[in-house]
Design goal:
With 75 residues, this protein is mostly helical. It contains 3 helices and no strands. The termini are far apart.
Length: 75
């Protein structure tokens, strides 16, 4: 595993996000698939677990936000 530079702190939220994208890109490029895909798996599984515990379904959530559920037809 190749050592990469530490994540830089940005001046604002946008810069923080861009720094993270650059950091992750370097991490993926400098490590074998088995290393970074294991971390991706942990992240995705935790997101799915959290979504499964969410108290509303998609239709209820969008209704709460005042948005339409489903696809709109193009006219």
């Amino acid at each position: 595993m190749m050592k990469i530079k530490p994540l830089k702190v940005g001046k604002n939220n946008f810069e923080d996000r861009m720094n993270f994208v650059k950091y992750w890109t370097e991490f993926v490029r400098s490590n074998p698939d088995q290393v970074w895909s294991k971390q991706q798996n942990i992240l995705i599984n935790s997101m799915m677990q959290n979504a499964n515990q969410f108290p509303l379904n998609a239709e209820e959530y969008l209704k709460m936000k005042g948005e339409v559920f489903g696809r709109r037809r193009k006219e």
